[in-house]
Amino acid sequence: MSLLPFTVAKFGGTSLADHQAMLRCAQIIKNDASNKVVVVSASSGVTNLLVRLSQKDVSQHEQLAIVSSIRAIQFNITQHLAEETQLNFQIDQLLNELSEFSNAQSLNYCPRIADAILSFGEQMSSCIFAQVLKSVGVNGEMFDVRQVMKTNALYGKAVVNLELLANNAQQLLTPLLVDKVIVTQGFIGQDEDGHTTTLGRGGSDYSAALLAEALHADNLSIWTDVVGIFTTDPRITEHARAIKEISFGEAAEMATFGAKILHPATLIPAMRKNIPVFVGSSKEPEKGGTRIQQFVESSPIYRSIALRREQTLVTVKSPAMLHASGFLAQVFGILAKHELSVDLITTSEISVALTFDNPTGSTQALLNSTVVEELEQLCEVTVEHGLSLIAVIGNKMHRSNGVGTSIFETISGINVRMICHGASEHNLCFLVDEKQANETVEKLHNALFS
Ligand code: ADP
Ligand code: ASP
Ligand code: MG
Questions:
Q1: Ligand 2, atom 2: nearest CA belongs to which residue?
Q2: What three-state secondary structure class fits 286?
Q3: 227 C-alpha vs ligand 1 centroid, how far in Å?
């Protein structure tokens, strides 16, 4: 069945924060009939509350307070809808289920229950947004994404089974698109045993890209709170400016290196199927946004600067490493066993420095004392927290003269902890102390983009 052309549209948390914001999103869907699938995040603030609820030591009193804050956020939206009573009933049912999970979690912590808890934000916002669509005359229908988004059981960072997703989506979703606009949840999936899983914080962008791929969509639109992808996070410097057009490769580097605007994996499915991605503001859709595609007109040496906070640097040191084979394999064996993925790596004669993304409140496996103890069986280990990774992103950076000089002369007063250059033609990245991160980005932005 061909429904061409069709778009998968994703709305982030701030776009769904209240009724006004949801109405703007509904209008975007209504104004362009190619929008057939809508992927929603939780309403702004809800997932953060759920993260707290999913942790170990939450008292009964705090649990009640959190559930009631979430209820207030959602009821504040439903009060504007004709189906308020029915929706509130549905939300209360979900919140009862949530409270049961949360009680169980407080008695006996379990990562599987953490994921179940985190999924409620998207479950609620999708029910509500389908009704908001109806209220503007669009035939919206909620679809539980867990019917198609089958994953493994790596709670907090579940891996999607692409083949199952493609088959299920074609079978269960495609027929619905003939006369409906489907509203479904980002961020969540389901493992083989029927347990709910999540794809990692900010994962709704990725869900939307996966669905676009599985359904053979022609476009993917990511609607957020900024008018596109900027030369750097506009919260860091007011001089940041929106980029009209950017290649898949450059945008993928930005996402990987921490530009929060897109979940790191978002562009992988889009690139596989060559699906152009649009990023714009649901608040100001008329201002346009950024188009991400395979071929672009200009490929400047410097395109943007990304910043990722809360990085951990681990240095492993062993004289036995000199001329010995297999040392690195052992180190990586330990990390793989604990499902830890290394971001950057540099080596010297007798030491190796590795960086890890280590965000607070993350539900994924973190670099814990067990890992460190196991590494210590092999070598001397130093762990440093409180670092930020800065990536300057562009084109042919590894073959352009003076790139390193321009960058490091600009920030000569700043202590740089580790540098990686050359592995990708699209970036040069390094670590600095967290406290100097914003200052470093600002200085670089002034020098490279003014
Ligand atoms: P959503 O809830 O819509 O997914 P996010 O908060 O996850 O939105 O991402 C949007 C935010 O990403 C922006 O408000 C901005 O502060 C941040 N951001 C970081 N880097 C960039 C960048 N290069 N361009 C635009 N926004 C960026
Ligand atoms: N609601 C989830 C989060 O806040 C997923 C998303 O917004 O993309 O991380
Ligand atoms: Mg996001």
A1: 202
A2: helix
A3: 10
